[in-house]
Amino acid sequence: MFKQESNSSSKPAPERKEETPMCDVHEGEKINIYCVTHGVPTCSMCKVFGAHKDCEVEPISSIYQTKKTELSDGIAMMVGSNDRMQGIISQLEEACRAIEENGRRQKTLVCEKFDHLYSVLEEKKREMSQVVTAEQEEKADYIRSLTRKYKDHLEESCKTVEMGIQTMEESEMALFLQNTKPLLKKIADASSTAHLDKVERGYENMDHYSVVFNKEAKALRSINFIQDCVYGRPRPTSSPQQMNSSSGLVKSSAST
């Protein structure tokens, strides 16, 4: 008896065959046609007697190939989009490093000049350094936040691509078509970056906070940063509201 059980347990498990989905309405009927009107697979009885009798239908094999091609194109588009997204993320990370470095450099230059007149300019130095630091932190925080958003979007896009690749491997046409419609919508949604802010070129620059000390001592108490324009707008003051108005951001259409 033990020998018989041992022999039976050593037999390879039978291969699992992919079963064609059955119609939920007509018992025993396989899903073998595709309703073009509603965009869903169905069975022949639904076309003859059921909910799809007045609909346009096609053989499931022809729709299978069309949708598979459409999904393949969508995956290729997503892969290209993800590559571009990674490039944007790299640029954002570099911009964040440049903002921090430029901010540190400009603060150093400001402090070196103030040291020569330290006794008179101590309070002014503190105020002007705060202006540089405020914009540095504002810009760096914004870039970090935007980088996180792009990384989150890229992660979701990669997950969608993986789902698409798994679906491409589905050999059963009806199952493939059942999964394709929501997946294609997800690909279309993930392809859009309209909700992500774009950073204006030169946003990372901090060299507008330059100083010169070529005026007489009587003008020292009115000293400020060199007056010019930033991105075509008046230079921001220490007011947070005014700094926000000249931050150099270009908002996406979704945010407006």
Automatic annotation (TrEMBL):
Protein name as it appears in the record: RING-type E3 ubiquitin transferase
Entry-linked CDD domains: Bbox2_MuRF3_C-II (cd19833)
Entry annotated with the keyword Zinc: yes
Catalytic activity: S-ubiquitinyl-[E2 ubiquitin-conjugating enzyme]-L-cysteine + [acceptor protein]-L-lysine = [E2 ubiquitin-conjugating enzyme]-L-cysteine + N(6)-ubiquitinyl-[acceptor protein]-L-lysine
Top-level taxon in the UniProt lineage: Eukaryota
Organism: Scophthalmus maximus
Record domain B box-type: where: 18-60
CC terms in the record's Gene Ontology section: cytoplasm; nucleus
Location(s) in or outside the cell: Nucleus
Comp. bias regions, Basic and acidic residues: 13-22
EC number: 2.3.2.27
InterPro entries (UniProt xref): COS_domain, E3_ligase_FN3/SPRY, Trim54_Bbox2_Zfn, Znf_B-box
Annotated Polar residues bias: 1-11, 236-256
GO MF terms, alphabetically ordered: ubiquitin protein ligase activity; zinc ion binding
Coiled-coil ranges per UniProt: 82-138
Domain COS, residue spans: 168-226
Keyword 4Fe-4S: no
Keyword annotations from UniProtKB, A to Z: Coiled coil, Differentiation, Metal-binding, Nucleus, Transferase, Zinc, Zinc-finger
Pfam families: zf-B_box (PF00643)
GO BP, sorted A to Z: cell differentiation; regulation of microtubule cytoskeleton organization
First-tier enzyme category under EC: transferase
Location of the region described as Disordered in the Swiss-Prot/TrEMBL record: 1-22, 234-256
